[in-house]
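Can anyone check this?
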Amino acid sequence: MKKLLNTLYVTTEGAALRKDGENVVAEVEGAERARIPFHMLGSVVTFGAVLVSPPLIQALATLGITLVLLDRTGRFRARIEGPVSGNVLLRRAQYRASEAPDEIVRSLVCGKISNQRVVLQRALRDYGDAMPAAAAARIGEAVHRLARILRRVLEAGEPAETVRGLEGEAAKLYFGVFGDLVRSPDPEIRFAGRSRRPPLDPVNAVLSFLYTLLTHDCRSALESVGLDPAVGFLHRDRPGRPSLALDLMEELRPVLVDRLTLSLLNRRQLRNSDFEQRDGGAVYLTDDGRRTVLTAWQERKKVERVHPFLGESAPLGLVPYLQALLLARHLRGDIDGYPPWLWK
């Protein structure tokens, strides 16, 4: 259980929440684990099988404290709130900002490129001596060029369209050397470039599967704070596409997904036998491979890091929810800009 940004996150399955006076009391196996006054809370978010007493639900609704119910994997299930809600004002602010998204687009792309660059720098630091000289030189050059692109993104006055082009240039650079980071002993597990629909090699199969999981988490996070996941800033609106969820995941992809993919392959937790090739050349994870990835994904989300803006430690699995809250606060005018999540 963690309280961040006036939100209580309950991630322990089997926990019970009840009302005691003017407090929320959290218990696990009958033992009290946390007691938080109502006036310190703006929302309560539960993951999985968590019991919430009816008196507590009524008290939260009466006080305007939102209760969000997610399943054990983090998918949005329900949002309970009282009759007076600020969601309409928040969504109107979101729609207005989507018409002039330059500032938010700049922040999102800054976070993404910065995190991509750190992934490459970490690889050079940890394994550069064991890499072929040509591969290390390619990665070093990509790090240098990403720094130049990042400086351009940070320049004031660049319109969103220009920043989108810079984001595409950075992605091409990053994935152009991503294959040099793969150290699997299986010759079939190689990366020749990003392929999406369908993935054409094992590396892309893992990336696409994990990107899908991260998209679900980001969508749930946005819905939990009352934002419309379909109206984005970096990604243009398209029927059926959760554009804002795709926006939110951009800065998180390098750290949460790309690093995990490399770890699974380089530590030999995934081998060639964990993939299957189908008609047309598509490559997908087997059932056993998916189980391995899902287990690693859930463990990865438990790892704690200090949030660069808040200065507090939080599990990686809560980062999408914290970023969604920060975005909502920016749209409401509570903070001057949207602070991306930067990995160091």
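Reply from J.R.: I decoded it. Residues 102-127 form the longest helix (26 residues).
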